[in-house]
């Protein structure tokens, strides 16, 4: 979609698996910010994220997939009260 | 009606001629649902399928919505596809028409023009195809059986032209053209095959080695670019229609342009009219010409894309024009053809007077005397420069 002049006729997509290249993080108004010092790796955020945008490696929460995170804030809301390791901040634009 | 002649003259109804043209084209897929007055096309073509005269896969569906859906799927798979319908059938296809054109699928549709309900009516007017005028389909209107027959071969070429890649609707008047027998010249099967050539689609949904997606979602960042691309394609189709009409003329001796001008050269008054009613108007013109009245006709053949420059050029020296619509837009301001013709003339420095006359709805007869009355009115307007009634129903 970068070269608009060369868009395929009638919107035909001529190869498979192109959804991988479709970045939807641009919709975001708020961005999640992780305080790794407070995080207990309970992974409730990973369970609750509606867009699989929580990145987990070897059982540890290591950050967010910002190309797909829509900034809904569910992770920050669901992060347990005693922990509160995720804060939502305004995107700079 | 079986056809025993392969070449030369044959007396055929419009529906028989279309079915015969389809047999000669031998499309890969034909998906249709019967509806008066286009049923004859399906009926006769089904005999050709049953007799093994064609290789076509004939899909009998449960509605016209499904007919157009099947055409879209088949066309996306790379097949040469056709269908035929009328009136409510075309109306039921409505949402799918936009998908066919948006996906740039070169489907050919024969629309045998018939009035839309309510009140229910099976006879001719153009309210069905005029309802589809913004659907992105190319629309060609045929005056005679011969022209409808010839138009179908050209429609295949226009649709499949790589600069166009858009669906084409060939319109002919219900009963008047579809059911009346006319003596026409048939083209030899081999010559048809040579003229239409073989269709090779660039992509096919069934080609699993080269998988493609048709009809994917586009959001605000690209939808408009696709519509712009489509808009430019249909505008450009005008030249392709002209080229193919000329080529057809060279090969078969019957040349077709964007419009037909009949005794228009020095006319003070002109009627602009589509399809079969132009024939009746020609008789009126001949009579009035004998009496020394300078009258003529412009019959647009191509309505979508609308050749506004060429139409303005053809009418620029006429003093008074009546655009006769066999459909009402229910806008309170005349018929659809009137609005477009009048808009096309706006660019002229010296604009003719233009009035709208709605005629012949639901198969109401339009006679030579009706055309003469319109011309009498126009000649008065041409003389005085004054228009009494801009929009009016005639043949009431």
Please give a structural write-up:
The complex is a heterodimer of chains A (93) and B (396). By secondary structure, chain A is of the alpha+beta class. Helices cover 11% and strands 20% of the residues of chain A. In chain A, a hairpin with a 2-residue loop joins strand 2 (54-57) and strand 3 (60-64). Chain A is elongated. Chain B has two domains: 8-252, Thiamin diphosphate (ThDP)-binding fold, Pyr/PP domains (Rossmann fold); 260-393, Rossmann fold, CATH 3.40.50. Chain B is built from 13 helices and 15 strands. In chain B, helix 1 (14-25) runs parallel beside helix 7. The interface between A and B is medium-sized, with 12 and 21 residues.
Describe the structure concisely for a colleague.
The complex is a heterodimer of chains A (93) and B (396). Chain A has 93 residues and is of the alpha+beta class. Chain A has helices spanning 44-48, 74-78; strands spanning 30-34, 54-57, 60-64, 86-90.
As for the CATH topology of the largest domain in chain B, it is Rossmann fold
Number of domains of chain A: 1
How many domains comprise the coordinates of chain B? Answer: 2
The stretches of 5 or more residues of chain A where confidence is low (pLDDT under 50) are: none
The N- to C-terminal Cα distance of chain B equals: 36 Å
Fold-level CATH name of chain A? Alpha-Beta Plaits
β-strand number of chain B: 15
CATH architecture of the largest domain in chain B: 3-Layer(aba) Sandwich
What kind of sheet is the major sheet of chain B?
7 strands, mixed
- Approximately how much helix is present in the residues of chain B? 40-55%
What structural class do you assign from the helix and strand content of chain A? alpha+beta
Task: Tell me the radius of gyration of chain B.
Answer: 21 Å
E-strand count of chain A? 4
Shape of chain B: globular
